[in-house]
Amino acid sequence: MGISVSAATAVIFITVLISLGIMWHAEDVKERMVEEARRDNIKRNREMLDTSVSFVNASYFAAPSNIVSMNVSNNGSTVIDLRYTDVYLNGTHYNKTYIVSDITGQAMANTDILAPMEIVNITVDITSNPLNLPVKIKLCCPNGISIYKIIE
């Protein structure tokens, strides 16, 4: 039984140690990824709970201008990125233009951010596809919160 048995035992022991090290590392990486996903989910849910937007008013101006104009207030504590906010009129997605106003009503130039307690005027040009009343408006925020309004 000499040295070959001892060498074989040492090789098996080292192989088991290396295998356990690889398995431990894989498990550690998996646990970190799961924990990070849980934190991201909690953050996303918190943002949804802290988001509160409402229509201040909305108007449809028929021919010749053919625009829908709406003022939306951010009543929550979440900052909303307006670049990723979508407007749907009667179920169809439309491009929009917007101007953000601060609490005092002063227009703020060159901003895509709607901070808490600010109001945004969103205008949709529908000259290519005029609508009939009633106009159903759906405004979707980037985090999934949506608000609805019907103009009759």
List the helices and strands and how they pair.
Elements: H1 2-50, E1 53-61, E2 67-74, E3 80-81, E4 86-89, E5 92-94, E6 97-101, E7 107-108, E8 113-114, E9 119-125, E10 135-140, E11 146-151
Antiparallel strand pairs: 1-2, 2-9, 3-8, 4-5, 4-10, 6-7, 6-9, 10-11
Mean pLDDT: 89
- Low-pLDDT sequence parts: none
The assigned CATH architecture of the largest domain is Sandwich
Broad structural category = alpha+beta
Strand order of the largest sheet: 1-2-9-6-7
Amount of helix: 25-40%
- Portion in strands: 35-45%
In the residues, how many domains can be counted?
2
CATH class of the largest domain: Mainly Beta
Number of helical regions: 1
- The CATH topology of the largest domain, please? Immunoglobulin-like
